[in-house]
Design goal:
12-stranded mixed sheet; 3-stranded mixed sheet; disordered N terminus
């Protein structure tokens, strides 16, 4: 299968997840992040009358999101994942330890890669195509992809005797997760983190070998017998009817109840699995008994080995009491990539702009001319454009912690060239605004995180709101935190999803609006994947049921929203929810 048709990110998914460098931002919620590059819709070469094949093609982005989410889920729920994250941190943030850390990370990934891909492939495809089933997945999704077909079929074989899809998923997660729960690896990593300690580990303690041993000791029928025993004894009143196990009962539970059942099942199964490794003299963590170790290892790594970049990282501990919230926070590890091309950038002062460049600064959409003023905290702007020269960085730093600017982009065969034009004061911008053609619509797009910097807010906030035709917030903080800390006491919160098309590629955006007094407050918008929006809708319905999805809310605003969305897609590298929270601090 060609690279642009591959249902998952076309490279080593796990290394990419751990070392993705597009956003090493202040306050990342863990050491990982993954990136989604939305699919170019012009690449479909099949028969569009084959509805199943074309539907699968259109669902490419969701497949990528779910696949990378499954990798993330496996890492944050295992001790081996914590070791991977800590080692990846040293690779990215400690120049003096990078060589040995890269060696160790490569060895760690090689010894867990097959099991990681098995779980991520099976979980993501069944999440998306549960109704269609295995036949559809193997025939329409993976028929031209023998590598991922093998991962899927290998995982499916482990739970072949388990009767329902929900139970299959629980048993497979417990089975694969246990492969990543070696105490020996945990202790060696903690004690020898700055050396290559891989040679001291019994090969049977690495995930791929642990999985092979479990497959030998627990064939499908034995796993089913264990499950039946659990259902008939541990949850007898709920799953046994007239002396027989009632498998269909599992579908009647909501997520919180299902988590409670899975927690008991996971502990039951993993105690059985651990007996196999005890016979080899190898100890294992059971269920979530590793969480204290994870916190100690990952937080300790940061405390002892401070990052060269000064970036603060904190370990994202799963919230055992709110799995709906955890799901959303995990999906906010996904960054949306706008271009695969290199991005070249420079700073141009307004007084150095010639008439030709100035006249090209306003864009047209829906028959109207727009001039867009952007606002971003400086550290986010520097991450967005890492190619800025040191002289340009120093120039921007002299303007404060938040930069108000416009920009010009040119795409060439070698990459994207972005000119950043900053305004040192409202009067500097005001001068330029008066030079625009009279019919030009002026828009301000202010990063919501900028309001954590009082000096900028006091200087610019009222001016932009009063002097420009339109005003909106780019929500660059976690929407979970936005909902909990900012929107929770607002009236009439509504949200919608809209798409913009750029070079045959659809990019999705969420927009949120609330009422303040008798007036609608400024819109919040954020780029997001289809999978993120689907889970956000679920999160809002569960945690903030008064928020309502109002499909079509964005439609009359598209003449205003489209140039803003296209401006981001055309002029930036990526978008991340992990940049900051209010106050300029990263979230943990």
């Amino acid at each position: 299968m060609a690279a642009d048709k591959h249902p998952f990110i076309q490279q080593n998914d796990l290394r990419h997840l751990l070392l993705y460098g597009g956003n090493e931002s202040a306050g990342a919620n863990n050491f990982m992040g993954w990136v989604l590059m939305p699919k170019n819709n012009a690449t479909f070469e099949g028969d569009k009358n084959d509805e199943a094949a074309y539907a699968a093609h259109l669902q490419y982005d969701t497949m990528v999101s779910l696949h990378e989410y499954a990798h993330d889920q496996l890492n944050i729920t295992s001790v081996y994942g914590a070791v991977l994250m800590a080692t990846a941190y040293l690779c990215k943030e400690r120049k003096d330890l990078r060589t040995v850390a890269e060696e160790v990370l490569g060895e760690l990934v090689d010894r867990c890669y097959y099991s990681h891909e098995m779980y991520a492939t099976w979980n993501s495809l069944y999440t998306l195509f549960a109704d269609e089933g295995a036949g559809f997945i193997t025939t329409h999704i993976l028929s031209d992809n023998p590598e991922y077909l093998e991962y899927f079929e290998k995982a499916d074989a482990i739970v072949a005797s388990i009767p329902t899809l929900q139970l299959k998923g629980w048993v497979l997660l417990s089975f694969i997760n246990f492969c990543f729960q070696s105490k020996g690896i945990a202790l060696h990593a903690e004690e020898n983190i700055t050396s290559n300690w891989i040679g001291a580990i019994d090969e049977k303690d690495f995930p791929d070998k642990r999985r092979e041993l479990l497959e030998q000791h627990f064939p499908p029928e034995k796993l089913k017998a264990l499950l039946d025993h659990f259902l008939a004894t541990t949850l007898q009143n709920e799953f046994v009817v007239n002396g027989a196990v009632n498998y269909s009962g599992v579908h009647e539970y909501d997520i919180e109840e299902a988590v409670l059942i899975f927690t008991k099942l996971n502990e039951f199964l993993q105690k059985e699995f651990a007996l196999v490794f005890s016979s080899y003299g190898l100890e294992s963590f059971i269920a979530d008994s590793h969480l204290a170790y994870n916190q100690r290892l990952v937080s300790g790594i940061y405390e002892i080995y401070r990052p060269d970049s000064g970036t603060k990282y904190t370990y994202f501990v799963p919230d055992k009491n709110d799995h709906v919230r955890l799901l959303m926070l995990q999906f906010e590890s996904e960054d949306v990539l706008f271009t695969r091309l290199p991005v070249f950038s420079k700073v141009v002062l307004p007084e150095d702009i010639g008439d030709q460049l100035w006249n090209g600064l306003y864009t047209s959409a829906a028959g109207l001319a727009y001039f867009i003023v952007w606002v971003r905290p400086l550290h986010i702007l520097e991450e967005q454009y890492p190619g800025l020269s040191e002289a340009d960085r120093q120039l921007l730093r002299g303007m404060g912690d938040v930069i108000t600017f416009t920009r010009k982009v040119e795409d060439t065969e070698e990459g994207r060239h972005v000119s950043i034009i900053p305004f040192a004061s409202p009067s500097a911008l005001d001068t330029r605004l008066h030079e625009l053609p009279e019919e030009t619509q002026t828009l301000a797009v202010a990063a919501f995180s900028a309001y954590g910097f009082e000096q900028w807010s006091d200087t610019w906030g009222d001016y932009l709101n009063a002097q420009l035709s339109g005003y909106l917030h780019l929500n660059d903080i976690s929407i979970v935190y936005l909902a909990e800390q900012f929107l929770a006491d607002k009236q009439d919160v509504r949200y919608d999803h809209f798409l913009v098309l750029h070079h045959n590629t659809f990019f999705g955006f969420i927009c949120i609006r609330y009422t303040e007094g008798e007036n609608a407050a400024p819109l919040f918008i954020s780029p997001c994947s289809d999978a993120y929006y689907a889970y956000l809708t679920y999160y809002f319905s569960e945690r903030f049921p008064t928020y309502r999805e109002e499909r079509g809310m964005a439609t009359p605003l598209l003449p205003f929203l489209t140039p803003v969305a296209l401006g981001m897609v055309e002029e930036e590298r990526f978008f991340s929810f992990k940049n900051a929270v209010l106050g300029g601090e990263g979230h943990s």
